[in-house]
Specification:
This protein has helices at 3-26, 30-53, 63-70, 76-93, 104-125. By secondary structure, the protein is mostly helical. The protein has a single domain, classed as Nucleotidyltransferases  domain 2 (Four Helix Bundle (Hemerythrin (Met), subunit A)), CATH 1.20.120.330. Helix 1 (3-26) packs antiparallel against helix 2 (30-53) and helix 2 runs parallel beside helix 3. It is globular and about 40 Å long.
């Protein structure tokens, strides 16, 4: 496995998914926008995992588990937000589940929290 290429793959994917999230939220597609926020965080966590463990990223969508196995100690606030964000990876796949957002203020708030979380995680990636 080429660790550098894997890290780049996951990191680039995170960046693309964040751009997609912004576009979807601007188009009032809040559920799908937040689904892509989750994907952006998931992919940067997988980049960190690959960098730390030097092995392929696990096939999981659980953000808290990815942090745990990568040795990332989250603040209580960020852990709480990631728990909220995980609802949208399920709702994006199974729309009948809880987690729908119909108001732009909440979607924008979660998007901005995603930005903050990603900036913090990227500091871990670049060590």
């Amino acid at each position: 496995m080429n660790t550098e290429l894997q890290v780049k793959y996951w990191s680039d994917g995170s960046h693309e998914d964040l751009s997609t999230a912004r576009i979807l939220i601007e188009k009032e597609r809040y559920l799908h926008g937040l689904f892509f926020c989750h994907l952006a965080v998931e992919k940067i966590l997988k980049a960190i995992y690959v960098q730390v463990k030097m092995e392929f990223a696990p096939k999981t969508h659980n953000l808290l588990y990815l942090c745990e196995i990568s040795g990332i100690e989250l603040t209580e606030e960020l852990a709480g937000f990631f728990a909220i964000l995980m609802k949208y990876q399920i709702s994006g796949r199974y729309p009948d589940n809880a987690g729908n957002v119909h108001d732009p203020a909440t979607a924008l708030k979660y998007y901005n929290k995603t930005l903050e979380g990603l900036e913090w995680l990227k500091l871990k990636l670049n060590r």
